[in-house]
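Quick start: read one record
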Amino acid sequence: MAARIAVYCLLLPVVIAPILLGGARLWALAILILCLGIGGMAGSFAQQRIDYPILAKIWLAGVLLGGWMVVQSLPLFGPADFPAIDSTIALNPAALPAGLLMLLFCLLAFTLAHILRPDGNLIIRIVIASALIQAVLAGILAGFEVPTNLWFTKTAHIGDATGSFANRNAFGALMVIGILGCLHQWARVSGPLMHRLDRQGGWIALAMILTVALIAAHSRASLISLATGLMAMMVFAPVARRKIIMFMIPLAMMLLILSDTTLTARFAELARPDFLQRDDLWRTALAAIAARPLAGYGTGGMNLVIDHFATPELNMAARWPNSHNLFLDAALCFGLPVAFIGIAAILAFAIRILRATAQPKDRALLAGFVTVALTHALFDSVIILPALILPILILAGSTVPVSPATRAVNRGDAGPDGQPVTAGR
């Protein structure tokens, strides 16, 4: 009973995080952390075996990153190279609690998923249900021409489906994750096509609903991430089905883009010489990184950095809360050394999980999710929203291989002293 409650507390945030503005607000993060905390307490009563070596590494990395964030915000020292900021490294020390809460949220979600290891199909179905709730909500708001996202009147992304999210890219990313999940469920049954349609055809219907919602979002980054995610799934899919998928993906993507005139026009804008200001924004971020490559600027001060280092061609009438590139954002916030080590560790960890996943269909889905995250990271920072990063964290925590010592204990291979038996004993 305790283990079941813990699993519910782990999966409930997957559904409610998108409804709470993606979970990015401080009060929303507190609610999500409370759910995970209750799940952790229930899991402790369930007497689950804990893989301490892996969790110790994850928490050590989290503590080190959190410690660096604290150092950046302390009024002990700080570069005097920025106007009106000469006592701290961080340009906005008040953003420290939000940053630490987000870090704690990620650590708790991964830890609880690794301890409980819920059924993978259950996780995926909850993610699909969460995406469908947002798609239905977006349809209702559009049908009644409601100019809000349930929280506030939209001043941007007007005419785009956003559900209860604040922008179209975040909504589109959740639709993409849901679509990949539907395709994974569809692939669970093998056999003749008509037999599969009879048994699993509902998943294709749900994927079509989410695709319609994705088109209504008019998010270029999400459509590109859908294409790359599908291609990643194709690479890791069973060889016998790859050739069919190879021809279906480009055709389907072209039909998706051409089916909506607004979306077609948005892709046509990419031919503009200024690349929609992204090139100037990235040059601004690179100039800011070059000015402070080691210390960074802390979390929460991105708009100040961009305003200060803006290139002459950058449109400052628009508000730029980030550099629209997660890798540049990481270097801006934490400095190049910390950002490089962190990104390299995450990529190495993802590769380790992919190699350890036994089932080809599960490996294909994880590869698709990782590819979607990396694609979005190149064009924006929405993938780190709790509502979007949580499904990936839960799947990663559930599938990461346990250490040899824990595996021996779980098999019962222990000696008289209660310690796991190793090859040398």
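Residues 413-425 have pLDDT under 50 and may be disordered.
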